[in-house]
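User: Okay, second chain of the day. Same drill as before: sequence in, structure tokens out.
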Amino acid sequence: MKTHTAFASLFAAALTAGTMLPLSASAQETMGAKVETKLDAAGQATKDTAITTKIKTKLAADKGLSAMDIHVETTGGIVTLSGTVDNKAQVELAESVVKKTSGVKSVENKLEAKSSS
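Assistant: Same drill. Structure tokens below.
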């Protein structure tokens, strides 16, 4: 038992010592770039979620649309609409609502109309 405890202590000390070694300048730059990339991705994901939420709220508030049948996905500011609405006018109305939303770069409208009127 004492051997096991001594080994665990020695292993923990070795790990701690290894993490305290100074990094070279290039390793620090690489590490910094990776952290920055992850932060940028997290920031974009947060923006995309906010855009999606705004769009869903606007679609739900529009009496001319059935928002329950419209699916919204945002990636990098590009919004994809999918689902089925009653007619072509609602397809166009939904796209118009999305285009007026701040942060939207473009719209991929994959909505299908039940009827052509």
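The first helix runs from residue 2 to 19.

User: Thanks, on to the next one.
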